[in-house]
Give the backbone structure.
Amino acid sequence: MSSSKPVALITGASSGIGAVYANRLAERGYDLVLVARRVDRLHAISEKLTRQHGVEIRTLKADLTVENDLVSLEDLLRSDERIALLVNNAGNGKLSSTVDMCDVDANATLALNIVAPTRLARAVLPGFVKRNTGAIINIGSVMAFCTLPITTLYSATKSYLLTFSQGLKAELAETGVRVQAVLPAGTATEFYDHAGIPLSAFDQAAIMTTENLVDAALVGFDQGEDVTLPSVHDAGLWLAYENARSTLFGATQTGVPAPRYKRT
Ligand SMILES: NC(=O)c1ccc[n+]([C@@H]2O[C@H](COP(=O)([O-])OP(=O)(O)OC[C@H]3O[C@@H](n4cnc5c(N)ncnc54)[C@H](OP(=O)(O)O)[C@@H]3O)[C@@H](O)[C@H]2O)c1
């Protein structure tokens, strides 16, 4: 890549939310590195966006659950000083109870939703901190605070990503580096085909378009939000949730068992 524009690296850019991020970030003038396994899709997206926006786009075929592919991406994130934005978007979630889920699916969910975003963030952050600029957008889920019997693993991985994002935000508070967690609710993508339950099985009134989701998330990013809940209309609900969390933690610091746990 030869231009001097900032570069955004987007994982899972071959469909759904990631593909819309590619479009919107190209509109904003970023050169792009698009990552996914379906390289044919990446090529088609790349050709279209290059034509429409005149940006430089590199497509990388990578399976983020495969060690060698992850190492190559980590190397790129450590070495390319033009990378200014990492969008950790790739994710999956087979909908199944923990007991019934096969090992391949369970391991893929943990690797893709936890290990990959953590390692990619750790690879890019030292350069961001050194340059005192850069941003990470982690695509989480509202399932971070809702666990159903068929979403245990998925919900747990998204809780991790939210906690990871909030911790990073605190670590980086004195720097110019930004971290945003985006928590979509149901969004019309291929996610549900892979999850094993068709999108049509859900209340369609509660499903957002990918365009609305990403546009709202980017407005939240522009407004400096650390956690963006595009579908939540009452922003006070998140503040109340965070306040309750903080109050609960404060209440743990007593050093003595609560009276209800008195041995009889
Ligand atoms: N759709 C929803 O309702 C919803 C709600 C909350 C959160 N989210 C989150 O949104 C993010 C994007 O999902 P989506 O809804 O846009 O679904 P999607 O259309 O299925 O997109 C998933 C993306 O991840 C990539 N991916 C999957 N496995 C991969 C692997 N092993 N290595 C590399 N890339 C891989 C896919 O590309 P390839 O198959 O080409 O590799 C695809 O580009 C996920 O993190 C998901 O958890 C979605």
In short: Residues 7-246 form a domain with the Rossmann fold fold (CATH 3.40.50.720). The beta strands are 7-11, 31-36, 57-61, 83-88, 134-139, 177-182, 227-228. The mean pLDDT is 97.
